[in-house]
Sequence to fold (860 residues):
Amino acid sequence: MSDYNFAYLDEQTKRMIRRAILKGIAVPGYQVPFASREMPMPYGWGTGGVQVSAACLMPEDTLKVIDQGADDTTNAVSIRKFFEKTAGIAVTEKTRAATVIQTRHRIPEEPLAEGQILVYQVPIPEPLRFLEPRETETRKMHALEEYGLMHVKLYEDIAKHGHIATSYAYPVKVEGRYVMDPSPIPKFDNPKMDMAAIQLFGAGREQRIYAVPPYTKVVSLDFEDHPFDPSKAEHPCDLCGAEHTYLDEVIVDDDGGRMFVCSDTDYCAERQALGHRGRLSPPETLAEEAAQ
Amino acid sequence: MYVAVKGGERAIDNAHAWLAEERRGDPEVAELDVAQIREQLALAVNRVMTEGSLYDPDLAALAIKQSRGDLIEAIFLIRAYRTTLPRIGHSRPVETGVMACDRRVSATFKDVPGGQVLGATFDYTHRLLDFKLMAEGEVPEAAKADPRQEPTPHVTSFLNKEGLIQSEAQGEVSGEQTPPDLTREPLELPANRALRLQALTRGDEGFILSMAYSTQRGYGNSHAFVGELRIGRVAVEMDIPELGFAIEIGEVELTECETVNKFAGSKVEPPQFTRGYGLTFGQTERKAISMALVDRSLRSKELGVEVSNSPAHDEEFVLYHCDNIQATGFLEHIKLPHYVDFQSEMELVRKMRAEIAAGQAQDSAQEAAQ
Amino acid sequence: MPEKHMNEQSLIGAFEAPPQDAARAFRAALEALARPGSIHEITGGKAPAPMSEAAATLLLTLCDPETPLYLSGAHDTAEIRDWIAFQIGAPIVAPAEAMFALGTWEALLPVTEFPIGTAEYPDRSTTLIVETDALHQHGAQLTGPGIKTVASLSLPALDPFRMNAALFPLGLDFYFTSGTQIAGLPRSTQVSDMMETN
Fold:
């Protein structure tokens, strides 16, 4: 791939993206329009995240890419390979070892640290889009801080179902000003967004970049009598026994038998290597071999 | 015992290898070369160039070959390649008035200066499968005539002389204003006409066609006549500041369509005709005509015509949904795993069902107790 | 290239390895703005005096023909203009059109002339690159996004930055440069006197 520039994008495009990222940092939660480029992967498959990562990566970086919390899902593999080829950077599956983490749909369980950047792939950056399809209208609503429609929607949920019927892409308010879409992460992950790392959001098709600086107030929308509830399946992980992680439900036989396992594969593997065991853990010897 | 599914990387490599085999098809059958596609599937090549925003018949043919004939995939390949090219500068607006026309028809006049030139068109062919083509049929040579040397004036310019048709804003026509570039700046609404036209040219032929068709069936009614449709080659010139004049850098084949729509007039304007405009690469006349209808429809507000709730009158609707690369990417991304979000939905549905069930159990217990 | 006799200095001072150097410089600029009060090394660009290496590197990293730039005071020299024309290509403009501005604090005053963005597009505001003699982590107290509890930074003034923060989400964003060091102050940062908070 030596025909392409370092990290694929040309320098002028990177400058344009970098300027948008910095304005996003300066106005947390505000969606900065940017001239998204056509990438060699389809829109909707992480082109926004890929462009943001490409603008951030430096040769010394170690990159981790996850999709659904896992490093080995096909699209995560594909994006990781893309940057290995075009930027020649080191890659890792270890959350702690990564300097840049690109993610789709999850925040790693391991708390992120200063010096790390979490890049989210975002399909629909506008939290108000499903209430008001027009960009011209939603832009005005953000300008006027007119978020009544969102509260009405959430309250109607409660009236109808007794719950806020949003379980992922649960809207947040950033630093008391902008209502922001956290990307389609499960609401379980929302409380993690108050973190030490820099969070950058890229929506390629919709041509928006936004950001949450470290230690920024990110509050999930709720009501006093219906406080936000970051619920998860009420099971421990069947492989590592963790009771505090987000779980995938896996159907294991034709009779509908199920098991629950950590969606964050790196976190789960590390716990297993440390000797944690769940209901369906393989015997010790096999686990040790797998860890090696 | 559960073993996490690994091997995404190997699956991808193997899938790519298999795809390459499938693309080639039966190796007993001769392989298509790019020149064959360029020459014999020229209309596919033209569509790929138009919606890919890159005039290069060889690359478009290559993209069609690589994409196994999936034209949207081919357009995607061309777009992704195009973004890697540096933008060196821009050409002067092409002079379609001096186009060497291979085809030029007007539906609004029986005859016009420059004449009606039918050209190579399917229009009056009978759509009967030609089984001779199953074998490699030799083609008899078509009759030839000397090409017209003088410029062929635009039909709408005759209407313009009489003031019967609305005049275009000067900057827009002369190209004095540098139009915005949809591929370099994010779309901002309301868009000006140059930006809308760019989006429509790049837009999906099927989408633009259906939008145009909807205006003909009464959704944002604006009855259009094809004032003129012309296809031919024009020179592309570029100003070279160091030289102080423009030089010709090449030639492109274009389809240009100008539609004429009746406008009953408004409080401030007397009745006159209004225009729609379409311009596309190669011979792509269905697209150019469709584009002209949609252009006219999207101009309703600026022309002071009544704006309805019809989709073709809605700039935001049309411009945000006409791009097939954006649309297909987002549509197809639902093939990607979404099990984390689905899991969270399952948890919520289970919880709500459990609460309802508990509520019903309580109710019936109370009833039983009474 | 423009034919006029171009200063030799304008031909030098670019990045040695542009994609890699710019990437490192951007990360320094990102960390600086995302963590107000933190000071970072940013190197690789060398422009004619009095421009610091940090400011030159930042311009090479963020500016190009698409970013109108305002040069103020001692930074508006023929040498610097030539250097920018050759290395960056940014059009030199008045404060009201500037996407970026460069100069000392005194020269950039009054900052009220720079665009602060609009309610619908708060990002359309100027980023000011303020050259300073030295950067220290003491002085004004900073709180807000990017700051865990409280941070300190040597700011050239207090009130203008307070007023700027009061405009949020509109407002200007600042970089302070000195030698090879850079610090950032986005509009989201609340600024107060050290004495007040103590």
Chain B touches chain A through 50 residues (CB under 8 Å). The first strand of chain B starts at residue 100 and ends at 105. Residues 129 and 233 of chain B are 31 Å apart (CA to CA). Strands of chain B lie at 100-105, 224-240, 245-263, 272-281.
